[in-house]
Amino acid sequence: xxxxxPTILVVNDDGITAPGIKCLMDVMSELGKVVVVAPDxxxxxxxxxxxxxxxLRLDKVEIYEHIDMYRCSGTxxxxxxxxxxxxxxxxxxxxxxxxxxxxxxxxINILYSGTMSAxxxxxxxxxxxxGFSLDDHTLQADFSHCLKYVKEIAAQVxxxxxxxxxxxxxxxxxxxxxxxxxxxxxxxxxxxxEFDERLDPQQRPYYWLTGVFQMNDSGEETxxxxxxxxxxxxxxxxxxxxxxxxxxxxxNWKFNI
Amino acid sequence: xxxxxPTILVVNDDGITAPGIKCLMDVMSELGKVVVVAPDxxxxxxxxxxxxxxxLRLDKVEIYEHIDMYRCSGTxxxxxxxxxxxxxxxxxxxxxxxxxxxxxxxxINILYSGTMSAxxxxxxxxxxxxGFSLDDHTLQADFSHCLKYVKEIAAQVxxxxxxxxxxxxxxxxxxxxxxxxxxxxxxxxxxxxEFDERLDPQQRPYYWLTGVFQMNDSGEETxxxxxxxxxxxxxxxxxxxxxxxxxxxxxNWKFNI
Lengths: 257, 257
What we know:
Two copies of one chain form a homodimer. By secondary structure, chain A is α/β, with parallel strands linked by helices.
């Protein structure tokens, strides 16, 4: 059952001034009352980091009329925690949406992604949550072809809810010609890292993380396959990281203690 | 089959000067050749964060004889990436151990933990990996009762290997009277957050993350139960976050696009 005027929390990891979050706010405003709590600076690659060794700032900002917006000095996950606890004062929103991320979070990239980790945090808080990403990491990214999908997927989640401890990871191809929606699993892929080694003016080395995305999965039901074949991908995500299938094996180990 | 002299990568999130990593180095030195790459400062709560917007420093340090040690300016996950790519020059170590963490990473805390994320990154690199944590977050923590368990579990992993894309999360109770080892699953629990709101000297508010750990799981096969009952817990962990059980449900949704 969809509430007539749900409260929708909007977060991201590219920062409160990123074009992607503006698109997400606009679409969500058509579905309910929007509250935005987003990092005051880009937080890509922050994963599920939280701020524990320093305090956080949270300031109301007036950028767009009719939208409650707060900028936060912390990580995307901090934003969700502050939103629920301080901004909404413990009242859970009906939906938490994160993004739209400038760049992909497919396969293993979910672990590095601040966008997805914010949505995971929403799900930990028992809020139906979705992380959205577009295959274009530039600030000039064009999100217009994604918006009807964003609205429809969010509306479905408001209508049906999501299974307990489950959230959605949604990706869009860059092409405006999206063929449809595929329900997918996380592809088996990884980064083959390289570090670009340079010398500073004092001739001391420093390193830039770089690398090549390495696909080790030929399945046609993966998020990577769907994107490459111009589908929007929807992956249901859980945060129980137990490898349940490995428990019987480990129970057979004999520990000599 | 155990190699006669395996290479063992040691990382942590409490920083290269933490007592917990010194204990881990000492035990691992009894099993093989140790290489340490650890953060130059405490990185608790960094989760799976990586450094992409700034460069990294990596410096060899001479603290203990016979142990190759490097301090890194980045996150725990950065340390693993730099260790494999730069320090070991692409040669995979036979084992990656992370910790021993000063403080627990049970249940959902695996997501926030730099210690566990470093071990997850090792597993992504196809290295048999283990994250160790003790239920004592103080710098004065006494790890001595854990060390025979650390050695035995690491030796077993060197002997048997681990299933593909699986790592181990190992926790020790604070009590020196450990009853034994329990193979466990991640408990269903969360933090009931609160933010301690204070005013700075300019009377502007700032917030410290705090909260109470909330157990929502009465199972006796969980990591939280094991700890409370004085067992060392071993949780097999995977990094495929797909909620496979939810795929059929989502395939029944009708998207009106």
